[in-house]
Amino acid sequence: MTDRKIGFIGAGKMGSALMQGIIKAGIVKPENIGASDVYEPFLKELQAKLGIRISTDNAVIVRESDILILAVKPQTLGSVLSNLKNEITSEKLLISIAAGVPLSTYEDALLEGTRVVRVMPNIAATVSEAASGISPGKNATPEDQKAALEIFSAVGTAVQVPESLMDAVTGLSGSGPAFIFPVIEAMADGAVLEGMDRKSALTLAAQTVLGAAKMALETGMHPGELKDMVTSPAGTTIQGIHALEEAGIRAAFMNAVIKASERSKELGKK
Questions:
Q1: Buried b / exposed e along 207-217 (16+ C-beta atoms within 10 A)
Q2: How far is residue 240's CA from residue 188's CA, in Å, rounded to a whole number?
Q3: What is the SS3 assignment for 129?
Q4: What distance in Å separates the CA atoms of residue 208 and residue 185, rounded to the nearest whole number?
Q5: Distance of alpha carbon 209 from alpha carbon 151, whole angstroms
Q6: Closest Cα partner for 3 from 26, 20, 19, 21?
Q7: pLDDT for 267 beyond 80
């Protein structure tokens, strides 16, 4: 990977987060990363900060790159693909992070044999803790799949899934951080109500979520087992668990993932 050139079509929050993660992980050198975007001032900021190549012309970045990461909004995807159809050849790997857009959209719009991998990362890429789902297209090689996993593992954790589950990935980890932020805020609110200052409450709430997630990942234990480790008979924790169950917390989170997944499917049909 170190000698390959990676080009970003779109340099917004997710695109720039991926660039920083790739450079930090040493996957490729900054000079081997190129980015194009319509907003030139932001591109120049990225160039000054990261040492990457920039252009306001998508085609320039495509020609200079071996791997392309398409980081544009689904609403603009059609025009971008149309303009780049003859530039994206089978010699290049195209990785798309557009939410809800199926592999067939790219394979139908681009030249025959185009190698495509669909990825759904999340905003935690900005702190190198993303959870990403990866699904290869029909022309993607094992080396392409390995490259995609390496790139997105540089900014967190990446798993390969069949495309039929990509909408579920979008609903779970793609939208998931937004489901957890209100939890952190609400937990902190509870402590503030009990007299704690806001800054300390938010710090403890966020660290509690981080620590719980790390335990789940590193121990490999079922979340129910981990819960039972904290829950003693007639103690404080079981009282809190009872309050959560009364409020329907499980159904609420399940429904959040299901609704977000359904919306992802709707976006893919447009």
A1: eeeeeeeeeee
A2: 14
A3: coil
A4: 12
A5: 26
A6: 26
A7: no
Distance CA 186, CA 208 (A): 13
pLDDT digits (tens, 9 = 90+) for 199-233: 999 999 999 999 999 999 999 999 999 999 999 99
Q: Where are the beta strands (DSSP E) in the chain?
A: 6-9, 33-36, 53-55, 67-70, 93-96, 115-120, 130-136, 156-160
pTM over 0.85: yes
- Kindly tell me the burial class for residue 87, based on how many C-beta atoms sit within 10 Å of its own C-beta (0-12, 13-18, 19 or more): middle
Radius of gyration of the chain (CA): 21
| pLDDT tens digits for range 249-265 | 999 999 999 999 999 88
Structure tokens at 88: 């994206």
For residue 30, give both structure tokens: 């900054």
Q: How far from the centroid of its chain's Cα atoms is residue 59's Cα?
A: 25
Q: Which residues contact 59 (CB under 8 A, 6 or more apart)?
A: 83, 84, 87
Residue recorded with tokens 């544009």? 72
Provide the 10 A C-beta neighbour count for residue 60: 16
* pLDDT at res. 269: 74
